[in-house]
Amino acid sequence: MTAENEFKTPSIQDRLLAAKKCALAGFSTAFHFDPVIYYQDWRRDYQDIIDMIFDFVPNNSIKWISIGTLRMPSIQKPIIENRFPQTEILNGELLLGKDFKLRYDDNLRIEIYKHLTKYIKSKKSKTIVYLCMEDNNIWKTVFNS
């Protein structure tokens, strides 16, 4: 999905090799899954990237991983549709949230966050996981259940 949607960017592997070099030079690292896009194989694909992170980068250098799902001002959706008519990133249902941004439904976002957080924690890492641009109710539901 990155090749179709992240134009003119290094591959995931190249980015992780750069992060590894930084970690080996003594720098802390952090990773941002933002925006997480919902699609048929999202679980497998994001798990594969998490596996790659922990395979490439020394665990003790990873200070945090943030997670945020797709969100945008409503005016942005038709711009994306016009500029990139073949894109599939808008295929999930997007609802107008309290912050007046188009977002996935609360239940879907919670499902995504719980799954990815659990998978990251399965790596026996002390890495802090936090949510981007989410309200307290989503945080409480994800981290206190």
* Mean pLDDT rating: 93
Q: Regarding quaternary structure, how should these chains be classified?
A: single chain
Strand content: 15-25%
Number of strands: 6
Low-confidence blocks of residues? none
Gap between N and C termini, in Å? Answer: 31 Å
SSE string, helix = H, strand = E?
HHEHEEHEEHEH
Biggest sheet, in brief?
Answer: 3 strands, parallel
By secondary-structure content and strand pairing, the structural class works out as alpha/beta
> Percentage of helical residues?
40-55%
> What is the number of helical segments per DSSP (H or I, 4+ residues)?
6
Strand order in the largest sheet:
1-2-6
Report the principal-axis shape. globular
Radius of gyration: 16 Å
Characterization of this structure:
By secondary structure, the protein is an alpha/beta fold. Helices cover 44% and strands 19% of the residues. It contains 6 helices and 6 strands, in the order ααβαββαββαβα. It has helices at residues 2-5, 12-24, 42-56, 76-83, 106-121, 136-143; strands spanning 29-36, 62-69, 71-73, 95-96, 101-103, 128-131. The strands form 2 sheets. The protein has a 3-stranded parallel β-sheet. β1 (29-36), α3 and β2 (62-69) form a beta-alpha-beta unit. α3 (42-56) runs parallel beside α5. The longest helix is centred in the C-terminal third of the chain and has 16 residues, at 106-121. The chain is globular and about 45 Å long. The two termini are 31 Å apart. The mean pLDDT is 93.
